[in-house]
Amino acid sequence: MTLTLPPVPPTWASGQVTERAYCVLAPNPGVMTLDGTNTWVLREPGAQECIVVDPGPLDEAHLTRVLDVVRRDGGRVGLTLLTHDHSDHADAAERFAHLSGAPVRAIRAIGTGHDDLADGDSVSVGGLDLVVVTTPGHTSDSVSFLLPAECAVLTGDTILGRGTTVVAWPDGELAAYLASLERLEALCGSGAVARILPGHGPHLPDAGAVLRYYLEHRAQRLEQVRGAVAAGARTPWEVVETVYADVPRAVWGAAEWSVRAQLAYLAERGEEGQLG
To answer: What is the CATH number of the domain that holds 157?
Structure first.
């Protein structure tokens, strides 16, 4: 049976998404960023201190809007977190730390000077609790944040609000990405996660269905890569032309990263489907 993604809204904008999560959409839409980067402002009801996840690109107007949301009713930033170090999520981290007066924390691989998060760490600000869930694969430093009070997980680029993400080879790695998807699916199965707050695109209220789709999609793409090579594809780009013919050509460059990650995955396992 072929799975399909649950329907999502055709447009996405800033606003209150859950009781504790407000999205400030950055003005950087594109083929890779969808509607733009989601900067998440997380606050326990009635609290003043909040957590900001992914301040986004270095855009002063965007950072001002984030601080305007934070400072409603006298609020302030207690902590800023990064899901990974891609520019559309992290370029504004240093500037936002200066504007907000709050520290930045990230996973150790990022290299921001504030890289002190580790898998399983608990983070608490103003009564709001998050748990660090390392989810490498899109990049080696990708991390998600579990919000237990809402059975939600903030996934950065590991899961997107529309479509699927790229495995950004060579830093990204398919085996790690599949393991991360399986880990998130297990959190869904345990009841710890019901909804996804992604780094781009609309929030996803049926996390289990999305994770099943992502895993099925990856399995199908691997089969298509094997088939393309068996049919005579000699380069990663020729694999892209066959396997990704159904997606806009504007994303073929990124698709080639995923193809290279898939070919490396097959080669590591000694499977058929390797290029000669």
So the answer is: 3.60.15.10
